[in-house]
Amino acid sequence: MAKKDGGFFLGALFGAAIAGASALLFAPKSGEELREDLNRELDDWLDRASEYTDRAVERGVDLYDAAAEATQDIKVNLKYNADQLKSRLDESTKEYGQNFQNFKDTAKDKFNQVSQDAQAGAELLKEEGQRVAGDLNAAKDIVLETAAEQFDKASDDVADAKDKAKEVVQDTKDAVEESLEK
Description:
Largest sheet: none
Keywords: Coiled coil
Number of helices: 2
Strand content: under 5%
Protein name: Late embryogenesis abundant protein
Order of helices and strands: HH
Pfam families: YtxH
Structural class: mainly alpha
Helix content: over 70%
InterPro entries: Desiccation-related_membrane, YtxH
Coiled coil: 35-95, 144-182
């Protein structure tokens, strides 16, 4: 909007100068009067130009001051926001670091507990395995002893049966011989 206002005023000033010069050039006047009118118009035009220049400079200074003030405000706001962000980031980093350390410590404790439980379980299994192995050896000895006794008994029974069979064979022979003799 400021550009259009300045352009309009400059255009109006330029138009007024052209119109004034044209009016003077085409007006029926003597050369001296014409020069005086032209000098007056030129002075008016220079005064107006000087006024517009002063206004433009004043406006430029105002804009510069406003821009400097806005820049300073922006710097202050950016610094404040950066400080806030850094503070939050530091807090979050510290909190996450603490949480990670807690997780790490808990994981280490759990690992140590599981390791101890596994060692205790391995010891129990070893002891139970040794007990079972002892029981199996005892059972083996009992089975072997019982098998040996049963074998001995069976051997005795077989020997008795063999003797009985021999007796039966002998009795049968004797009976057959007796019957043949009769």
